[in-house]
């Protein structure tokens, strides 16, 4: 094979094409996870893939396609912004999901919050917590 | 090659958006819908990224940041709303 066919442009195009396809596959994996997983916590696990890794791959492909150095800091800022906001919103959603009992306790391997919740409920009386468990 | 990549990623992202919309329609609770809407926004951001990369422009970059900001504010607000409502109904 002629080595001239593998110019730098072709290699960069191929790498960014692979990154774009893998980044789109992350979105598809998140959708499959949303449809197949049984409860909120496992769906949250699947939903993080396109938000962090998928966006990273696509921004990397974009930076490769632009062929200039000054776009990399801008893309890095966009990715770091996503990296700062996604854990906060995931924390809020997970906290609200735990409080409103949107989870299957038999599927959890450990529940580190349960002792704390039991202690807090013991101080306040168990009647409220039993009613909340039944309502799930 | 870029046209082939564009076709493949369009099909993948369309399937992903369809799955997220099905989860929004079917999701048993409000938090499932919020999560699926967040994934749908991430898919929109991915589509913007691919459009920029294939056509080699940077016009959508601010829109991408705005979309992720909207997803953040929306999911945090709805999570607070869900928690708040339950606290009130417990006290009453």
**How big is the Rg of chain A?**
22 Å
Class derived from helix and strand content of chain A: mainly alpha
The percent of residues in helical segments of chain A reads over 70%
Give the SSE order of chain B as H and E letters: HHH
* Total count of strands of chain A: 0
How would you characterize this protein structure?
The complex is a heterodimer of chains A (136) and B (92). Chain A is built from 5 helices and no strands. The radius of gyration of chain A is 22 Å and the shape is elongated. Chain A has 2 domains: 3-100; 104-136, no CATH class. Chain A is mostly helical and 136 residues long. The mean pLDDT of chain A is 82. Chain B has one domain. Chain B contains 3 helices and no strands. In chain B, helix 1 packs antiparallel against helix 2 (30-55) and helix 2 (30-55) runs antiparallel to helix 3.
Brief overview:
The complex is a heterodimer of chains A (136) and B (92). Chain A is mainly α and 136 residues long.
Notable characteristics:
heterodimer; A: 136 residues; mainly alpha; 2 domains; B: 92 residues; 3 helices; 89% helix; flat
Write the layout of secondary structure elements.
The complex is a heterodimer of chains A (136) and B (92).
Chain A: H1 8-36, H2 40-66, H3 71-99, H4 113-124, H5 127-135
Chain B: H1 2-26, H2 30-55, H3 61-91
Helix pairs in contact in B: 1-2, 2-3
């Amino acid at each position: 094979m002629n080595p001239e066919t593998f110019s730098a442009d072709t290699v960069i195009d191929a790498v960014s094409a692979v990154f774009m396809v893998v980044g789109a596959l992350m979105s598809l994996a998140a959708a499959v996870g949303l449809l197949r997983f049984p409860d909120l916590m496992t769906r949250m696990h699947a939903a993080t893939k396109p938000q962090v890794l998928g966006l990273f791959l696509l921004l990397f492909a974009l930076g490769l396609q632009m062929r200039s150095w000054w776009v990399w800091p801008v893309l890095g800022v966009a990715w770091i912004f996503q990296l700062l906001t996604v854990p906060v919103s995931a924390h809020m959603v997970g906290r609200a999901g735990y409080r409103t009992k949107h989870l299957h306790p038999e599927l959890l391997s450990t529940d580190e919050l349960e002792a704390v919740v039991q202690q807090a409920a013991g101080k306040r009386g168990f009647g409220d917590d039993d009613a909340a468990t039944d309502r799930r | 090659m870029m046209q082939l990549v564009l076709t493949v990623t369009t099909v993948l992202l369309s399937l992903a958006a369809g799955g997220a919309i099905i989860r929004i329609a079917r999701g048993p609770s409000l938090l499932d819908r919020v999560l699926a809407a967040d994934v749908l926004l991430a898919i929109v951001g991915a589509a913007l990224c691919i459009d920029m990369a294939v056509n080699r422009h940077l016009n959508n970059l601010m829109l991408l940041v705005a979309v992720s900001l909207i997803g953040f504010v929306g999911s945090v607000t709805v999570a607070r709303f869900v928690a708040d409502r339950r606290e009130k109904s417990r006290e009453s």
